[in-house]
Amino acid sequence: MASGDLFTSELVGGGHQVKRCIANIVPRVLGDKINPSDQVSKDLQEVIDSCAAIKADTMVIACNTLQLWLPRVNTRGLKVLTTFEVVDNYIKETKTNPIWLGTWPLVREIDKTRRYKTLSSMGETDLQNLVQELIWRVKGVEGSDISGAGEIELIKDEKKMVERGTSLFDCLKVIKCDGVVLGCTELPILVDKYLKDYDFGELILINPAKLMAENLKGSGS
């Protein structure tokens, strides 16, 4: 819920009329693996059908990982905008190659096509594991569904989350890169709400939700 609130606020702040759909979609990630159940695509189809029924112009998918299920559903003619598209536009315009930070399932799919640079593709497996852990920790602290998290010690402890988040960005600042894409909706929450006093130095943080709002504004949607 909290991650959806932040995503929606970015779109509204960009001057868009937004009807938020509270989607009851089963967890997309179980531990660090993709949920193999067909229920994910069935739940997504129900959401798309609901959006089509109210004659929405554009459907924006807030969950970065959820876009992996788009090929398995019927979009009913809706224009569906994903974070992949807006990040692609950003990379093209800036001529940069930032590191995508996200869930393991999404990162594995990205690595298959080399669409973006990832910590995994750079051999930084431990850091990618930390990103996945932090996504679950943010969910735990924010009161979101953590049923698929597995065993993570003190998952609802804010102090532990901040400590682990600080460790991640301390390491990222050392890596030479064109910035990092906060490619999971929990990551901007971690940065903006819990690490607001942290010194990110020259590390460029790219929020797909903000890119989405700018893209929609530019397209007149």
Total DSSP E strands: 8
Shape: globular
CATH architecture of the largest domain: 3-Layer(aba) Sandwich
Spatial order of the strands in the main sheet? 6-5-7-8
Residues in helix, %: 40-55%
Provide the domain count: 2
The CATH class assignment of the largest domain is Alpha Beta
Q: SSE order in H/E notation?
A: HEEHEEHEHEHHEHEH
- SS summary, helix count: 8
For the record, give the distance between the C-alpha atoms at the N and C termini, rounded to a whole number.
24 Å
Low-confidence stretches: none
CATH topology of the largest domain: Rossmann fold
Class by alpha and beta content = alpha/beta
Beta-strand percentage range: 5-15%
| Estimated radius of gyration | 17 Å
Mean pLDDT: 89
Largest sheet: 4 strands, parallel
Protein name: Aspartate racemase
GO molecular function: racemase and epimerase activity, acting on amino acids and derivatives
Summarize the structure.
The chain is an alpha/beta fold and 221 residues long. The protein has helices at 2-13, 39-53, 83-94, 104-113, 125-142, 158-174, 186-194, 208-219, and strands at 29-30, 33-34, 58-60, 79-81, 99-101, 117-118, 180-182, 205-206. A hairpin with a 2-residue loop joins strand 1 (29-30) and strand 2.
